[in-house]
Amino acid sequence: MFLQVTAFFAIGTGIELCGLKWVSDSISIVNTISLIMFSFLVGIVVSRSYGNECFERIQRSLKSREVPADDVLNGAVMSLCSMLLITPGVITDTIGLLIMIPATRGIFKDIALNLTRKRIQSGKQYFFFRD
Q: Does the predicted model carry a pTM greater than 0.70?
């Protein structure tokens, strides 16, 4: 499992570097760095504002004795969005921006919901790594 995770991150880093090189060749190095810094700031703002809002909605749902399933799923997907925007790279920023758009967020929520259902039905204790 360690080798697979290491290979995944090595290949992902290589793809991100190639994407950054392609963007810097297209729009210049200064503009590429500015774009990376802007996406970092957007990720921080999304994390802080949406995280607080989502936490308050979950608290209201729990106080009214309702299950906050949709709020938890939306919060998890938006947390992933902010992490992807904070991470420098072209592909991670593109996926993060797609998650931010409400029209395409449902696709990522469905993916997360299906993944979670499969893990629960299989009885796995851990979500990402094996026992």
A: yes
